Automatic annotation (TrEMBL):
EC number(s) from the headed UniProt entry: 1.8.1.4
Cofactor binding description: Binds 1 FAD per subunit.
Protein name: Dihydrolipoyl dehydrogenase
Organism: Proteinivorax tanatarense
Binding site for NAD(+): G181, G182, G183, V184, I185, G186, M187, E188, E204, G272
A GO term from the CC aspect: cytoplasm
One GO MF term attached to the UniProt entry: dihydrolipoyl dehydrogenase (NADH) activity
Note: The active site is a redox-active disulfide bond.
Amino acid sequence: REEKHKVDLCILGGGPGGYVAAIKAAKSGLKVALVEKDKMGGTCLNRGCIPTKALLQSANLLSQIQKAQKFGIQVNEVKGNYSEAIKYKDGVVSTLRNGVESLLKRHNVKVFVGEGKLISDRVITTETSDAKVEISAEHIILATGSKPKMPAIQGINSREVITSDDILSLENLPKSMVVIGGGVIGMELSFILRKFGVEITVIEAMDSILPSLNKKASEVVLKSAEKQGIKVITGVLAQEIASAANGGAVVSLTKDKEELKVYGEKVLMSIGREFNIQGIDPDKNKIELTEQGAVKVDEKLRTSVTNIYAIGDVIGGYMLAHEASHEAFVAVDNILNKENSMNYNLIPSAVFSDPEVAQVGLTEKQAEDKGYTIKTSNFPYGANGKVLTTQKTEGFVELIVDKDSNRILGGTVVGVGATEIIHQIAIAVTKELLVDDICSTVFAHPTVSESVFEAALGYFGEEIHI
Ligand code: FAD
């Protein structure tokens, strides 16, 4: 059977970029088609943000119960059961996926399940289970996302090598694992698996883990990782992976010209992500790519073809879900002729390590490079009463402020609730608030958020609790 459809907007990829664009455009009155080759919700919902955070809940609960005695609670034997945790995670994922599917239906988005191909600047084709479909569209949004990157090192294809996709469906956890790449995905998974008892060795090429973060923040995370029994080796490159005689794998590394060997039952590859451009056929369709191989866009998210936009992981950047969704808003606004463009300084980053880290706005270096004279103010979490009740006192709030105007340019939060607390600073940065605005806000007591208040008071030397 052959079908032909004509729409205002056709979107390739149903992740947090694509499906958000579809709903937003449909709500604005456009006739929308969405082509997804796999499961609705993309990497984020099925293999990324949501499943990892569901497993993190299990891991954190396990670790909390193990510490119950500290809080005056008697517990007998406590044991993690990873395959049950995976089932719990699958339940969360399918509830959310059903939610997204019904939202798309409710907004009359025409969904096609099949691999989409960009044929020309106005045509996408796909083959669903029962039809060959051709969709003509005035506008197109490419939102095809990314997949795990595999380096060309010897042994990369051995059975012991797995990716974040595989971790999320493992029936039995290995006793030990080498994690190649100490970035956000590698560290988040390391903390989760460590709590389930896996012996973890992280190897990282740069000189610190989480190299994209504020140095002070990554030092706090490193210290905590080591305290929890995660081994970290930095400044090393994996040279080769060889299967070990009795199962497992040995990873050979070089550090300061010295050869090291690290053993793990499994090897998790988490060195970054690769852009999904297969369905786009950039050469034929004259879609320009960046040097890294991402789809190149301008600040309005237009590709080199005027009516084709691209959003989310496939255009590179921080490669975060909320970034993809915000880009969806910006691209749809531009399609609707409501001028909008991206300001990447306003995208917060959230790392769900233990402790959590979140950042927004300019870093000290970026602020200085832009010519600001900056003053930072830091409040240590250990001095906050609510934090103390959690027994997890590592962390801090740091504000980066323009000394001339007192305007808040950025900030970092490390510790309990950091990925929630950061939004207070995100609002301040977005709305160009002054430190004075935070000082004149009344914060409820006792709350972790009071640390933001104290950091603001501290800017004027008026902090109370240190
Ligand atoms: P994707 O979510 O990758 O979706 C793209 C979709 O396009 C996929 O469903 C794919 O099947 C489909 N597709 C590709 N090609 C075609 C084609 N030719 N035809 C039809 N369909 C196609 N980000 C956060 O912000 N917070 C987190 O906590 C977080 N945790 C993560 C944890 C892990 C383990 C991983 C791997 C990622 C995590 N991320 C997180 C990143 C986040 O998942 C991505 O940034 C986000 O999913 C990008 O959204 P997207 O819509 O651009 O692409």
